[in-house]
């Protein structure tokens, strides 16, 4: 049977129900003080779809025109978790009419009626914290025209969830899950009348978690940019909430916020989104800038590596490269074999990307998205630069072996910036080291790159010879550039170059030194706003690996 990070055992559900029945006798809040302004606003179009009876999420669709959304069956755990987290309230608020408000009220009361005493997937600690945040965040929208009876039901459920979290918040073992649980608890208790003692306890717990889970430089071990942003946003929300009720803000919380701000600034693309690495998506275009503005901190991007990512920025061009090994071990279920992979943006246009996380589009896509070939980097025979475990299920594979040595050298040149990164991820499998060098012009209008493979020692050369002999043919390399689906691409100059036209009309051309065969091949782009993976293209420079040193030189330049 497939394991799930969300599915609760029957025994756990019984335990939850018994606790909630006892907790029902505890004091409950009677009001929310300092009603917060909505922190998050969803998408108007998605809200419209909900009102019309359709729920879309990560390639999956629910049609509930003939029934309640809580009566649906045969859903994936990921989809069910999304429903129980109530993030869709953002979209209903964005649509904002009376029909959307009525639907929000019906679904909320419906959830309490069916699941409110401990049943179902929604009593994971992280989902409970997420749900509390969205309930209170949109309370002013929901409670309008709410009956006195339903309002009492709401506050009773609110109290039960707070008490539940105060006891069972550690049940989630993921970093983001623990912060969702604790931040949701702090947020709810700090704003609820009569919950002051619980608010003090929860804030103390959050304070310790900040010191434990967030590195002193504001990074997370998972190296997932979107996860860092979500934790950062949760902490900002807590900070603003504590300020609104005149509560003292603990120093560890403040220091982590201050240290995370430059990390987020350093990982920002020109359009305000994040690079898609290690299970993270790009985030909504407005969200990162909104959170940075709310923090009150105006950081400059760090000069050196940012959470293992290297950044070059000149003119309107931003280059972000994975310059460190991935997080490994049993908890690395979303880590990617992406060392030396890059993403490139020009102004507000994404040009070169990674396929992203296929989580939600099926197990095959999830695993494929983690492979080296799904990233804009160099591969050998399609082999991953990090090795995945052979678990009981492919969706539960973790990084078992990652590159041990990754060296990064960044320097200024007279005409721009240079970045040089090498990793030994192919040394144990093929006896080869991958070196990637990229020079970004001072005006940002050209990028010159070189990908190199070589055996660093005699024993590595012997290994390469053995692998080549076993395969009875020369090994092949591929340098891949996955193109954002909004970019139009075509082969020009008799098949020697690729033309890339951005949404704003600017044209860029990728050329190579003639040592490779250039082709445009199919690729996919995993976008959570679409039902299916978006079709796109990738540029592939391919050729045979030479015995001693293989060099592939390429250039990308703006047509002016």
């Amino acid at each position: 049977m497939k394991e799930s990070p969300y599915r609760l055992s029957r025994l756990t559900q019984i335990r939850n129900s018994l606790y909630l029945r006892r907790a029902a006798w505890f004091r409950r809040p009677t009001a929310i003080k300092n009603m917060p302004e909505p922190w998050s606003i969803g998408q108007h179009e998605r809200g419209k779809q909900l009102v019309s009876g359709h729920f879309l999420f990560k390639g999956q669709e629910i049609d509930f025109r003939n029934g309640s959304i809580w009566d649906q069956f045969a859903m994936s755990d990921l989809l069910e978790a999304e429903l129980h987290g109530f993030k869709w309230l953002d979209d209903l608020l964005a649509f904002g009419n009376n029909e959307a408000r009525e639907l929000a009220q019906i679904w909320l009361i419906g959830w309490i009626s069916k699941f409110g005493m401990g049943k179902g997937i929604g009593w994971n600690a992280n989902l409970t914290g997420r749900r509390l945040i969205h309930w209170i965040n949109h309370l002013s929208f929901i409670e309008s025209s709410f009956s006195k009876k339903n309002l009492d039901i709401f506050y009773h459920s609110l109290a039960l969830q707070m008490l539940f979290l105060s006891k069972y918040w550690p049940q989630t073992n993921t970093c983001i899950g623990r912060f969702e649980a604790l931040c949701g608890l702090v947020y709810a208790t700090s704003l609820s009348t009569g919950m002051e003692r619980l608010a003090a306890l929860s804030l103390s717990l959050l304070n310790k978690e900040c010191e434990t889970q967030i590195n002193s430089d504001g990074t997370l071990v998972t190296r997932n940019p979107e996860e860092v942003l979500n934790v950062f946003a949760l902490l900002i929300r807590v900070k603003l909430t504590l300020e609104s009720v005149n509560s003292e803000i603990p120093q560890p919380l403040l220091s982590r916020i201050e240290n995370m701000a430059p990390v987020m600034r350093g990982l920002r693309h020109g359009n305000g989104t994040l690079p898609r690495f290690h299970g993270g998506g790009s985030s909504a275009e407005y969200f990162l800038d909104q959170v940075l503005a709310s923090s009150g901190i105006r950081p400059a991007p760090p000069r050196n590596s940012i959470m293992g990512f290297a950044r070059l920025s000149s003119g309107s061009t931003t280059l972000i490269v994975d310059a460190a090994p991935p997080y490994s071990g049993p908890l690395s279920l979303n880590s990617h074999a992406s060392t030396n992979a890059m993403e490139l943006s020009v102004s507000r246009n994404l040009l070169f990307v990674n396929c992203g996380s296929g989580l939600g589009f099926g197990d095959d896509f999830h695993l494929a998205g983690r492979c080296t070939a799904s990233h804009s980097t160099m591969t050998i025979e399609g082999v991953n630069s990090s090795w995945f475990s052979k678990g009981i299920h492919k969706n539960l594979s973790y990084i078992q072996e990652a590159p041990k040595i990754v060296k990064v050298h960044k320097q200024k040149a007279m005409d721009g910036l240079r970045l040089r990164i090498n990793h030994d991820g192919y040394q144990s499998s093929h006896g080869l080291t991958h070196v990637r060098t990229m020079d970004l012009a001072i005006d940002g209008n050209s990028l010159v790159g070189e990908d190199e493979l070589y055996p660093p020692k005699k024993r590595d050369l012997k290994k390469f010879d053995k692998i080549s002999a076993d395969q009875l043919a020369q090994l092949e390399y591929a340098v891949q550039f996955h193109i954002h689906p909004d970019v139009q691409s075509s082969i020009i100059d008799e098949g020697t170059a690729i033309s890339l036209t951005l949404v704003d009309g600017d044209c860029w051309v990728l050329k190579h030194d003639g040592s490779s065969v250039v082709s445009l091949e199919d690729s996919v782009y995993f976008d959570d706003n679409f039902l299916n993976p978006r079709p796109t293209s990738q540029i592939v420079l391919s050729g045979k690996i030479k015995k001693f040193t293989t060099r592939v030189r390429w250039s990308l330049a703006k047509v002016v």
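Residues 491 and 498 are 5 Å apart (CA to CA). The mean pLDDT is 90.
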